[in-house]
Amino acid sequence: MSLKKYILDLRKRREKVQQGGGEKAIEKQTAMGKMTARERILALVDQDSFTEYDLFVEHEARDFGMDKKQLHGDGVIIGTGTIYGAPVCVFAQDFTVAGGSLGLMHARKITKIMDHALKMRVPLIGINDSGGARIQEGVNSLAGYGEIFYRNTIASGVIPQISVILGPCAGGAVYSPALTDFVFTVDKISKMFITGPSVIKTVLGEEISMEDLGGARVHAEITGNAHFFANSEMECFDQIKKLITFIPWNNKQKARAFPPKPPKGKVKVEDIIPSDPKNPYDVRDVIKAIVDDSDFFEIQELFAANIVIGFGRMNGDTIGFVANQPLVLAGVLDTDSSDKAARFIRYCDAFNIPIITLEDMPGYLPGIDQEHAGVIRHGAKVLYAYSEATVPKITVILRKAYGGGYIAMNSRHLHADFMFAWPTAEIAVMGPEGAANIIFKKEIEEAENPEEMRRLKVQEYKEKFANPYVAAAKGYIDSVIEPDETRKMLLHALEVSVSKEDYRPEKKHGIPPF
Amino acid sequence: MKDDNHELVDFQVLSLKYKTRLTRKYKERKKYEVPNPNEIKSVIPGTVLEIKAKKGKKLKEGEVILLLEAMKMINEIHMPFDGKIKKIFVEKGQRISKSFLMVEIE
Questions:
Q1: What are the boundaries of each domain within chain A?
Q2: Number of Cα atoms under 13 Å in the Cβ half of residue A232
Q3: Residue B69 is part of a domain; what is its CATH number?
Q4: In A, which residues are within 8 Å of B32 by CB distance?
Q5: How confident is the model at residue B1 (pLDDT cuts 50, 70, 90)?
Q6: Are the C-beta atoms of A133 and A169 separated by less than 8 Å?
Q7: The domain A269-431+467-496: what is its CATH number?
Q8: Within a domain: residue B24?
Q9: Is A206 within 8 Å of chain B by CB?
Q10: Is the backbone of residue A142 left (phi > 0), alpha (psi -120 to 50) or beta?
Q11: A326 and chain B: CB distance < 8 Å anywhere?
Q12: The total number of structural domains that make up chain B
């Protein structure tokens, strides 16, 4: 007897289930400008690399007429594939099946692929497009979310976890993305919130659109929940693929090395910086003039833009960059930028990625709103993250390094491995004007011409202290370098620190100022 | 996507002014207001269930002024100190947002 019959039957079953919610639901999905779950996975992973698991899983709900409903795959697709050859575990919620709602079996499929990712030590990518908990399944669906959050937490810092928000992700569901390392959003498609516009209207009588409440732009720019913003799903997948090239599969490995390339063009680093320290420049131009192929992959570009974070390569190896951005809010540290930088530093440390810090900052942002928003505890996160990190830590001070900011931005005192400073560096307890006003208060007040005396004293302070040499004389700075030597010195520092070992006392875990 | 506003402005940090851009979030931040102890504002959005006190009435510290239903709980709004109700700004059944001025006392 031929096996053909069985094979044809399998094919028929597959074909039926792979239609998800059926033609009408797919039409609706497309009309919303969204790809289907299956299309999304296929667009994300290498061609022909996707292998699906649990295609034939079905729900077990019996109440509220659910026993008569068949939900293909229970509204979620899971499986494995590769991205540029790197293995990944993927799940994608299928909005065409019962609105991608999460029931018990739906959650079990997700936790199964999460367990698999953790055991195989490969990255996990979750595509979220779901109306939320499947109400008919009651507490079972809550249990499902809880099991997902637990696994997100356990896997944190072991495997990279990526969340892609391609539709609604509301209520408790938002906490899975929030627990993961990188959240990707697409304009007009992503929606994330704890309570939606209708609840807000009922409770408060306030009207707001989904887009303004929790659209991609809000999360990319205001809340900081999103790390990437794209204008289309395809652009979003390109961003994910690019990110995968920069990060290792797990915390025991290093990111894949690429062939080394020099920076593009012949930009002289020193030409980027204006001579007046009060004038801004785009610090990303400095990074691009330093990294391989001038390829800098920025993370959270729109959120707290006064600090820049992202990946670049040096001599082919992935490096995490943290840089004050004088172009925005003068590059100050505030609650949001501290939070942004600290989390990224911890990411780099967890995944064996050396950190290069480019410093040019006037200090912490003064203000009642900042103090009340907890700039103390948020700012402390930066100190904690840098001090705790054991990956190679290199700092280059470009211009201003004042006060608490000087300490926070990976200073020697937080045990940076290499401290470089440009001759333009001003390392001081505060800016020259402020310092002169305090130190020479009496002289200025008693002078015949106080303004002239103030100017003279500011100048005196500048010459004596607003330079890198006082710190260099104490060994707080290892080397004062010419701006155009920066790449060379960084490459050398990275070469020296290839087998860096640095240990912390044994402990269960620290207690960072979350 | 870029910030809509690329304009460089003067930005004071301690003693120095820098030329820099502002973020949307910075521009839209709320100005601080000194709290007035005579104004009782809602700390949570909700619905006014019942108003117990009347205008001009003298109340002791801890006495209930009104009931505010919020997050499925009935919250008693108490007098913060001995005083007189000067004005009531809400009505029974009114839905109010957070930081809404409910009662003025003296």
A1: 12-246, 269-431+467-496, 433-465
A2: 6
A3: 2.40.50.100
A4: 368-369, 372
A5: very low
A6: no
A7: 3.90.226.10
A8: no
A9: yes
A10: alpha
A11: yes
A12: 1
B86 located within any domain: yes
Return the pLDDT at B5: 63
As given in the structure block, the two tokens for residue A21 are 């919610």
A205 with B25: Cβ contact below 8 A: no
Q: Any idea which architecture A12-246 has in CATH?
A: Alpha-Beta Complex (3.90)
Check whether A123 has a pLDDT greater than 50: yes
Task: Determine contact, residues A97/A71, Cβ cutoff 8 Å.
Answer: yes
B95 with A203: Cβ contact below 8 A: yes
| In A255-349, beta strands by DSSP E | 297-299, 307-314, 317-324
Amino acid code (one letter) for A182: F
CA geometry: angle at A132 spanning A128 and A135, to 5°?
150
Nearest to A285 by CA among A300, A303, A264, A302: A264
Reported as a single tens digit per residue, the pLDDT across A373-397 is 999 999 999 999 999 999 999 999 9
B23 within domain boundaries: no
* B94 interface with A at CB cutoff 8 Å: no
Contacts of B90 (CB under 8 A, 6+ apart): B48, B51, B66, B96, B100, B102, B103
Residue B34: closest C-alpha in chain A: A368
pLDDT, tens digit (0-9, with 9 covering 90-100), for A150-181: 999 999 999 999 999 999 999 889 999 999 99
Neighbour tally for A468: CB within 10 Å: 23
Residue B4 confidence (pLDDT) = 55
Q: Which two tokens stand for residue A50?
A: 């996707």
> Is the CA virtual torsion A481, A484, A489, A494 positive or negative?
positive
For A432, nearest residue in chain B (alpha carbons): B15
Residue B59 lies inside a defined structural domain of this protein? yes
pLDDT tens digits, residue range A397-448?
999 999 899 999 999 999 999 999 999 999 988 888 888 888 888 988 888 9
A-contacting residues in B 13-32 (Cβ below 8 Å): 13-26, 29-30, 32
Q: Does the pLDDT at position A1 exceed 80?
A: no
DSSP state of A4: H
Residue found by looking up tokens 């293909």 in the block? A72
Tell me the pLDDT band of A465, cut-offs 50, 70 and 90.
confident
Cα separation, B61 vs B86, in Å, equals 15
Residue A25 predicted with pLDDT over 60: yes
* Fold matches, A12-246 and A269-431+467-496: yes
Classify residue A78 by its DSSP letter.
Answer: E
Best CA proximity match to A414, nearest among A349, A492, A494, A482: A349
Q: Which residue of B has its CA nearest to A277?
A: B18
* Rounded CA separation A304/A306 (Å): 5
- Cβ atoms of A427 and A471 within 8 Å: the answer is yes
Question: Per-residue pLDDT tens for A79-106?
Answer: 999 999 999 999 999 999 999 999 999 9
Chain B residues within 8 A of A204 when measuring between CB atoms: 45, 95, 97
Which residue range is the domain that position B50 belongs to?
A: 39-105
Residues whose CB is less than 8 angstroms from the CB of residue A11 and which lie 6 or more positions away in sequence, other chains included: none
Distance from the Cα of B106 to chain A's closest Cα (Å) equals 28
What tens digit of pLDDT does each residue of A127-143 get?
A: 999 999 999 999 999 99
- What's the pTM? 0.93
| Overall average pLDDT of the B66-83 stretch | 91
